[in-house]
Amino acid sequence: HKIAILISGRGSNMMALVEQARGYSVVLVASDKPDAPGLAWARERGLATWALSPRGIGKAAYEAQLDAALRAAGVTVIALAGYMRLVSDDFVARWRDRIVNIHPSLLPLYKGLDTHRRAIEAGDAEGGCSVHIVTEELDGGRLLGQARVPILPGDDADTLAARVLIAEHALYPRTLAEFVMSPADHIHAFATTLPEVE
Ligand code: GRF
């Protein structure tokens, strides 16, 4: 499978997906933030990159160009990794069951932002991260994998985030590899034909 990774920032999960690639190859790193630090890393590694800011052109035009870049690169699966933009329903429909995301909580707990602070404030004994299929519902698609870490006395959102991030870097490549290599276990995502290129 040919993977595109979508980032908005530092891209540490993107780096983990590139460095631990197994059963898939990363053919494009794309961003809504042309100055995302992770893009520079990808370029230095010789990876193909694409970046465009939706500012000024609007979300629909931005996503149309993104979609064209993904199809031109022959992408079959999209991995969101710190991509801070909501994907439109239309885009989800065009890539149904072919977009995955990593979220820094034990879903279905703490969808959305500020997950670590919320877990600490709730008095949870564990935090963690989840890899899931992206659907129209925010952080709501089917779970593909999860990793847990303890919440320790004295933790704040930053110390917990750092502990969870280490788990993310192990979970995401492993889960993506399983997802692309065992299609039988995962709906009919890869039995169906890819959408036509327009
Ligand atoms: C990660 O914690 C990820 O789970 C969340 O945003 C953070 C992105 O970090 N969605 P990075 O850009 O991968 O370093």
From TrEMBL:
Name the site position(s) for Raises pKa of active site His.
Answer: D139
Transferase as a keyword? yes
Residues holding (6R)-10-formyltetrahydrofolate: K59, M84, R85, L86, V87, N101
Instruction: Offer an example of a GO molecular function term for this protein.
Output: phosphoribosylglycinamide formyltransferase activity
Task: Name the catalysed reactions.
Answer: N(1)-(5-phospho-beta-D-ribosyl)glycinamide + (6R)-10-formyltetrahydrofolate = N(2)-formyl-N(1)-(5-phospho-beta-D-ribosyl)glycinamide + (6S)-5,6,7,8-tetrahydrofolate + H(+)
Residue positions annotated to bind N(1)-(5-phospho-beta-D-ribosyl)glycinamide are G11, S12, N13
What are the UniProt keywords, alphabetically? Purine biosynthesis, Transferase
Which pathway?
Purine metabolism; IMP biosynthesis via de novo pathway; N(2)-formyl-N(1)-(5-phospho-D-ribosyl)glycinamide from N(1)-(5-phospho-D-ribosyl)glycinamide (10-formyl THF route): step 1/1
Active-site annotation: H103
What GO cellular component term, any one, is given? cytosol
The residue ranges of the Formyl transferase N-terminal domain are: 2-176
Q: Which GO terms describe its biological process?
A: 'de novo' IMP biosynthetic process
State the function annotated in the UniProt record: Catalyzes the transfer of a formyl group from 10-formyltetrahydrofolate to 5-phospho-ribosyl-glycinamide (GAR), producing 5-phospho-ribosyl-N-formylglycinamide (FGAR) and tetrahydrofolate.
Report the protein name in the record: Phosphoribosylglycinamide formyltransferase
Q: Which organism is it from?
A: Sphingomonas abaci
